[in-house]
Amino acid sequence: MALAVLRVLEPFPTEAPPLAVLLPPEGPWPAAGLGLVLALRPAGESPAGPALLVAALEGPGTGTEEQGPGPPQLLVSRALLQLLALGSGAWVRARPVRRPPALGWALLGTSSGTGLGPRVGPLLVRRGEALPVPGPRVLETRPALQGLLGPGTRLAVTELRGRAKLGPETEDSSRPPPPPLVSSFAASGTVRRLRGVLGGTGNSLGVSRSCLRSLGLFQGEWVWVTRVGESSITSQPHLATVQVLEPRWDLSERLGPVSGQLGEPLADGLALVPATLAFNLGCDPLEVGELKIQRYLEGSSTPENKGSCSVLPGPPFAKELHIEIVSSPHYSTNTNYDHVLYRHFQTPRAVQEGDVLCVPTVGQVEILEGSPEKLPRWREMFFKVKKTVGEAPDGPACAYLAAASHTSVYLVGSTLSLVPGLPSGESTPWSSLSPPGLETLVTELCAALKPRLQPGGALLTAPGSVLLRGPPGSGKTTAVTAACGRLGLHLLKVPCSSLCADSSGAVETKLQAAFSRARRCRPVVLLLTAVDLLGRDRDGLGEDARVVATLRRLLLDEDPLTRYGLALGL
To answer: Residue 534's closest CA among 484, 499, 566?
Structure first.
């Protein structure tokens, strides 16, 4: 790296870029006819420090002072000296860069009256500076802070506000220009609040397009979601992306005149919150409530000199993810689910310690083979995050992305936990958490069951059994299913006809096995349908005292192992 002296040339040629250097006729560098890029660094700084890339052009051959002995002189403008924080006559180290870094992506900002001109290149650009062509300013570059903008660079253009004039230099060059504001998207510290309603899938908040613009967020941007009015102890912030939900198309009459008409759009100020995200936030499924949105890494203490800070940062990938399978009556905890987990984490997923993960199993044959149900269905599996290992930046909480290509996933055992009540794929009024005509019954069931879910509650040692009576088709099972979905309880349905046998001892054995199965996947509601069949003898005329005594003992059992296990009879 050769030493050189910077000299101010006034007036600087107007045809040359203001941040370029003019080479002496006879210098240590090759001819600049084919385009030469120099890396400049103050002579007193460490060779490992950052360098400024500048375009080097052939200087004037006549009309300048003779070059004396010593380092060669580089003719520069005052704008370049201010950028380097040096004065005229300062010594720098300069070396030619034969292969400047090529930019893969760049975000350009334009004023309301200007646009992009013809794309010429490659151009040497830096983040925060204006392009040589009039108009655009470089707001963000990847993968480097400076490099060549060429045909292979993907461009994104947005509108700049808060700056009346865009150009290489302003008339008053002594005052630094104000930082560019990309609409309202770059404004930090903005309070963003939404009212959440249950809906959507994955880990994405669904909003309307106008709501996304009013929030000042980008499509697919990572944000922290927190319940308003809750402390960080009771409700930990969680990561989610913000996605625009387009209105659904009404295709109920595909051949009619209304075919293809847009459905009702999502109202502004509302956000569809997936059931799993609402559960991990501790929200009530019926009333998610108001949510506070904070963009990822906003207000974090990330050093300015630590690389390029993008306006769309994402959480880092976890090195290790330790999870436990949640015991459920719908699948076995002893089966190997490596393929299920591998398929799930082929897509990066946001994970935090203590969260419950919902893993779909559609198309997984091992789920059907290991299902304890007589009529196997494609059930969702639940896993609880026990531990995450990685390097996360400072933030409201410690969150990572888990992916099969970056993260080692370990299944370290099983656990007992509440689970989110996921909507069924039928999407009928009867499959909702508030079935029409049964709202009062569902509310009464929740009021009866909820105290047993609170450790230390007054009703914890009381009998956990409820009897529902009504004609077939009156909605008893529907109401119980909705109550379990609201409270996050597992539901184990056992028809009592399957418990009947030739002898009282066999009935007793089957009945005890049903309660033992429910105890292994608590908190659970054991739903016994047609329970009146258990009390009859073989002739159906009398009462089987032995079976009735066994059922009564199981229902009134106050063993601590049966806590959070409740039985309902229909």
So the answer is: 499
With helix as H, strand as E and coil as C, how does 240-270 read? EEEEECCCCEECCCCCCCCCCEECCCCCCCE
CA dist 15 to 88, 141, 519, Å?
A: 22, 26, 83
**How far lies 472's CA from each of 469, 528, 570, in Å?**
9, 14, 10
**Is residue 428 in a domain?**
no
Do residues 485 and 531 both lie within one domain? Answer: yes
C-alpha span between 521 and 382 (Å, rounded) = 12
What is the span of the domain harbouring residue 6? 2-58+71-96
Residue whose C-alpha is closest to residue 290's, from 235, 219, 332? 235
Residues 286 and 241 in one domain: yes
- Provide, for the chain, the percentages of residues in helix, strand and coil under a 3-state DSSP scheme, each rounded to the nearest 5: 20, 30, 55
Residue 22 in 3-state DSSP? strand
Question: Residue 147 domain-assigned?
Answer: no
Length of the chain (residues): 570
In this structure, the answer to whether residues 535 and 445 fall within a common structural domain is yes
CB 383 within 8 A of CB 323: yes
Do 551 and 443 fall within a single domain? yes
Side chain identity at residue 332, one-letter code = S
Query: Can you say whether residue 189 is alpha, beta or left, with left for phi > 0 and alpha for psi between -120 and 50 degrees?
Result: left
Q: Is the dihedral of CA 249, 242, 105, 315 positive or negative?
A: negative
**Cis before 122? omega within 30:** yes
Q: What is the pLDDT of residues 253-280, one digit of tens each?
A: 444 444 444 455 677 888 999 989 999 9
Q: At 32, phi and psi to the nearest 5? A: -95, 15
Q: Which amino acid is at 180?
A: P
pTM over 0.90: no
Closest CA to 403 of 415, 422, 390: 390
Q: For 387-428, how does the pLDDT look when each residue is reduced to its tens digit (9 = 90+)? A: 999 987 766 778 899 999 999 999 999 999 999 987 665 566
Provide the 8-state DSSP code for 102: B
Cα–Cα distance list, 121 to 34, 102, 133, 496, 555 (Å): 13, 12, 11, 78, 80
SS3 call for 486: helix
Q: Yes or no: say if 408 and 325 are a contact pair by the CB < 8 Å rule.
A: no
